[in-house]
Design brief:
Blueprint: H1 3-20, E1 30-34, E2 40-49, E3 54-61, E4 63-66, H2 70-78, E5 97-100, H3 106-127, E6 137-141, H4 150-158, E7 165-170, H5 175-184, H6 194-198, E8 203-210, H7 211-215, H8 221-226, E9 229-236, E10 242-251, E11 259-261, E12 273-279, E13 282-287, E14 299-301, H9 304-332, E15 342-345, H10 350-362, H11 383-391, E16 400-407, E17 411-419
Parallel strand pairs: 6-7, 6-8, 7-13, 15-16
Antiparallel strand pairs: 1-2, 2-3, 3-9, 4-5, 8-9, 10-17, 11-14, 12-13, 16-17
Length: 423
Amino acid sequence: MNGMEQMSESTEQTSETAAATSFFERPGVRVETIDVGPGVPLGIERSANLGVGIGGAYGTWGACCPNVELAATVESILGHPIGDNGPMNVGDLGFLYRHHVPALQPQEHVDVEVEVGARFITEASHAAGWDPGEVDALLVGITTPACNDYVERIAAKAGIPERSLKVTVHKACDGSVAALNLALNPELGWGHNVAQMLRGKKVLVGGIEGLSRVMHQTKDAQALQLFGNGAGMFGLIPGQTMEFIAGGSQEVYDEEGLLQVRMAYPHSRTSLLEVQETGAHSLRFAGLQHEPSADAGPVVMAGPMGMVKLFVRSGVSAVRTVYGAYRERMGRMGTPGKDIAVSIVHHANYKINLLKAKQLQKEGINIPMPWLLSDFGNVSAASAMIAFLRMLNQLHTGDHVMFDGFGAGTYYDVVAVELGAHA
């Protein structure tokens, strides 16, 4: 079975399961309520693979909104009908559910997301076999943080030591893969060799996205139908449970503004990617976004073809470059027959990912790209981490995995790794 057939089969199986079962109804999910406002449901599922020495946790929070209720939910947020051109066939885009928080006061949104982040850190640490107090570094991708010191707050609340490195990555949907690239790739030239510092350390990497908070302020009906809340975190030891093979980072700024996002984090707006030391043990990697006009809300999206134009061409180029470096590395190691077992791709929408896979196939790159997030919606930087945790139990020691991130801005990170090299 080739990569595209595997992707198609995986999508059909996942969609059938998700159509009958929302995330909160999955047997392995623990659901509780965060006591803020009217109460916010939170669901977390752990995933661990003892053979490769990696474990983590993923999930979502807020009321579950299936596609049949989506139009009414969007209209209640907009305060007016979507209109004839507004409703999207989101099922064809791979999404059957997403999760939204209620309208809350600004401080209540912060309280919810700090509690959420701390719980995911705790659960991911335990799934990896650690206490949060053993964690040496926390790297988190976030598109629009609830507060500027979000990662520091959730780390402190979860019990991660003050001495541990905290890294926040604001590269939109690419944020979590960019964080993983930082943790593993010694070749990145951003002035801080994070990978060198973290080799052999206990590291938590992931994405936490409270996008429904942002959706309460948007006027873009398309964004309201696609985005939801989600988080995925996992623990690894660089050089032991996960070994870097090849990777790269690429920026192709979105001059046309096909996906505009208001930056909710400090940025000078004079350069593309800025690195700031925000504390004695904290770093912020902040990417420039093409921002909407003042009266347009926090998110403005072009139509579906605009998204394809934005992500596919440069996305294929980024994968091609790293895959070429991977094949060269395999040749030097005397294992030219070794190949990538699976590609963990940001779930922008199914059609974008399908077209990207087809374009890669034309170039002779055939890697399975399973679609795994029908029950979440587009959860930006959280999606690749959730997808990896959903694949984790099917992977084996020595498997090679490619992580493929891309996001508004436009930023691309691709990294190939070996699992369980010295677990």
